[in-house]
Amino acid sequence: MIAENLACIRGGRVVFEGLDFGVAGGEALIVTGRNGAGKSSLLRQIAGLVDIAEGRIALEGGDTELTLPEQTHYVGHLDALKAAMSVRETALFWSGYLGGGGIDDALERLDLGDLVDLPVAYLSAGQRRRLALARLLLAPRPVWLLDEPTVALDRASVARLVVLMEAHLADGGIIVAATHQDLGLGGARSLVLGAPQGGFADLHQDASA
């Protein structure tokens, strides 16, 4: 995936501009920066939810019959769940919407198999987050866009998520994650928005690489 001269304007304010970066298959890009620097806006631009004011984003080597948003999974910092629906109903909705298959494996891999009949309203914050993340496994898509993916997750759940992300990268997938937390992905690259040295972005290799 490549972005060239990318700009974002929200409410008449330039959030960022002149942004260039590339992410190859099998790579993760961790987007960091101060509040308001445009981390969530960037992910939403890639997902097709926020207009691109200038520049372009393209998925090189992707399915030419599909748009970039159709080849992405976007999990925002809000879980987007309906309280009255059960875990099973929620997973079935997302599977149908995304064109996926069965739900059992996805729920088991996120330790939700014993909660399938429980309404979302009765789930803990961590369980709701894991259910939101389950959509990543319900239908294969090459690009995962994750906004603060570890919010409300305990240590065991974070470790489980890291295993899923590493498997996605091993299969040649791409991850772009906006987060203030260390996700523990070795070799992940870093994109810093709103860099104080005057540039809007500074791309560098993670120190753990």
Q: What's the helix-strand series?
A: EEEHEEHHHHEHEEE
Number of strands: 9
Gyration radius from CA atoms, angstroms: 17 Å
How large a portion of the residues is in β-strands, by DSSP E? 25-35%
- Shape by Cα distribution: globular
Count of discrete alpha- or pi-helical segments spanning 4 or more residues? 6
Indicate the low-confidence ranges by residue numbers. 196-209
* CATH architecture verdict of the domain at 2-79 and 142-205: 3-Layer(aba) Sandwich
* Main sheet summary: 6 strands, mixed
* Helix share bin: 25-40%
CATH first level of the domain at 2-79 and 142-205: which class?
Answer: Alpha Beta
Order of adjacent strands in the largest pleated sheet: 5-6-7-3-8-9
Termini separation (Å)? 20 Å
Which SSEs are present, and which pair or pack?
Blueprint: E1 2-10, E2 13-22, E3 28-33, H1 39-46, E4 54-58, E5 72-75, H2 87-98, H3 104-109, H4 125-133, H5 135-138, E6 143-147, H6 155-170, E7 174-178, E8 189-193, E9 201-205
Parallel strand pairs: 3-7, 3-8, 5-6, 6-7
Antiparallel strand pairs: 1-2, 1-4, 8-9
Characterization of the model:
By secondary structure, this protein is α/β, with parallel strands linked by helices. The chain contains 6 helices and 9 strands; from the N terminus they run βββαββααααβαβββ. The strands form 2 sheets. It has a 6-stranded mixed beta sheet, sandwiched between helices. The chain has a 3-stranded antiparallel beta sheet with strand order 2-1-4, covered by helices on one side. Helix 6 links the parallel strand 6 and strand 7 (174-178). The longest helix has 16 residues, at 155-170. It is globular and about 50 Å long. The model is unreliable at 196-209 (pLDDT under 50).
